Recover the amino acids of this structure.
DNA sequence: CATGAATGAGGTTTCATTCAT
DNA sequence: GATGAATGAAACCTCATTCAT
């Protein structure tokens, strides 16, 4: 039984890697089976079809990120520290599994993910948005974040800045500045001359 | 002759719409032909193959955005006004053709666009980055933008915030706030309590 | 009018060269047109379709060879001399237009030539056979060729030997012997020890 | 396993028959599959593509003939008997599988067989030529064949005569003569009056 | 007459899915 | 349960032929 779950998980791991590498249509069921170390027919013992495998990998992707963010949210630390950890986590995973924000991920695959899975994922996005809002609210309570702007908008502001920053890092050389500090400075103080 | 260019353009328009709607692999050559009002064989008079059609639509997509941003950059108006126009343009096209930032667009299709076209598009991204930097520099000269942060980072900050904001708008209801004002306030002043 | 015939001939010349080089199915109408220096549509002014062009080139091929053999047959020279000229003609055209004997030519293309043209060509083959027989008969009358073997069989014997000889020459180096003399010696005296 | 080889062989048998009947370009993959009693996709389990199937049938064709000739060469019989067997074999297969000499076969398909397979086949032709030469040499040793003519030339003489004879038989009625005897007589004694 | 842009029937090939072992 | 050989629908692309200019 545990073995069954293990094999299922192996298949998903294999599939996720291949989908990420080659996209949905350039990944063959045969490839997934081979990489997972099972026969082609076995895939159909664990999943209805290719679509279902893909859907599962998408759900996993988004849920894993959600989980990580939730974990950070639940930590017993200050707002500033949470923000720093979010930044670091994103940075470390950049060239690994989770280089795309969930929403970009979904947008990339909107023509491929099943309609009903898209809905479920969008719900997760909203969940994540809520968690970000909670973190922002913590900042407000701690007197670190302005209270005159809805937390929702601030969340957007933070997530967007980080996301774009890492996007650019993907195809530009390492810069000479201490960019982490600069980004945080911008988030806190904005770009206007005081 | 003008007619030849027209037909080529018709095909690209048809293709772009279908690729956007259904993705590359779910768009059949027959569909493109039908929508463009030509025969299947005609597509091959104007393009080498499906890949080339797709590549062209990608190039068009990114070049058109680049062009628009360039246009704004060349306008004889203040930094603040340019920022506002960028925001408005992005907002208006949200549910139309250009809902994705060029970089998200490329990332979505990285397994589909030809290698050499990806390179060309990344160059455009850098061009666009340069233009944003020029706009930021104008803000610095006008004494509106802080000079202690590299323009490159600020560009990232502005573009990311706007991008994420519009991403979220795509699947959330219209809010009650005057969000435009709030976003700008954040960009200028940051989220920290003064 | 003469111009019309000229253009028709140009097309056939172009077609024959391409068919020989690339075969029927790898020769495109466009190629024929281009090489003949006319438009693609023009081909259809002079020929019903691709098949007809091909058929014509085949007919030309076989008729030209037939003509040459007839010409030799009509010459006012001895059997021995005729045999020598046949040999020389075949040798000279070996790497040129007429490297295949008519019958090999037809066999190569039996799936491509129109049924009715095949019949016509086979008639030509029989005509050619008859001419060969006449030449053999002349040899008999001159007292040079044995009378106890039907001329038909001797014709076969001569044509086959020459044909195979030139076939082999096509992919083997030039030999050191005076092969011409040896071949003739064989034809005249056979291979048995006297 | 044996079954796998069997199916592969079935496909080749089906393909060879169809190629022979209709040529390469008029034989559809669907036809081959149907005649072999398998699905279209199955062809691609056993062969890379149509070209490979064709190449294999060509190789088989030439190798089978080579094998038969080798077999005759190895027999413990006299030169005269070998010559007779060669004649009989060729005669019997005339309207069956092997109606064309290997070289004619290759020449017919020179635009279709893969370059590298053509080379391989030409090597077989040379092998076959060597075997014929050995047979001729045996005749010389037995004192039946003249020693003043290179065996290579005599081989050409024998093969060509037989080939042409059977070519002609293909489209002419059965004759009244004992042609076998006449042909052999010619080969041995030539056509000159003694 | 001459042309070549437009066409679409028809071919090869791929690959998700099935099912007998 | 696990497998992978077999399948055939579906997609891309070619090219002979047409016909408006």
């Amino acid at each position: 039984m545990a073995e069954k779950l293990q094999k299922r998980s192996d298949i998903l791991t294999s599939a996720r890697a291949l989908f990420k590498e080659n996209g949905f249509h350039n990944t063959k069921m045969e490839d997934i089976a081979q990489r997972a170390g099972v026969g082609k027919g076995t895939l159909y013992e664990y999943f209805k079809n290719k679509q279902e495998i893909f859907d599962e990998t998408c759900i996993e992707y988004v849920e894993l990120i959600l989980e990580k963010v939730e974990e950070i949210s639940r930590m017993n630390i200050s707002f500033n520290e949470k923000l720093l950890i979010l930044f670091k986590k994103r940075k470390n995973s950049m060239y690994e599994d989770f280089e795309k924000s969930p929403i970009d991920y979904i947008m990339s695959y909107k023509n491929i993910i099943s309609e009903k899975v898209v809905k479920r994922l969008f719900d997760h996005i909203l969940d994540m948005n809520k968690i970000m809002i909670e973190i922002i609210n913590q900042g407000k309570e701690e007197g670190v974040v302005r209270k005159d702007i809805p937390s929702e908008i601030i969340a957007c502001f933070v997530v967007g800045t980080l996301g774009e920053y890492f996007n650019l890092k993907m195809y530009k050389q390492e810069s000479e500045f201490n960019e982490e500090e600069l980004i945080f400075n911008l988030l806190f103080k904005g770009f206007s001359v005081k």
Remarks:
- Residues 4, 7, 38-42, 45 of chain B lie near DNA strand E (CB under 10 Å from a C1').
- Chain B touches chain A through 58 residues (CB under 8 Å).
- The mean pLDDT of chain B is 87.
- The CA atoms of residues 136 and 173 of chain B lie 31 Å apart.
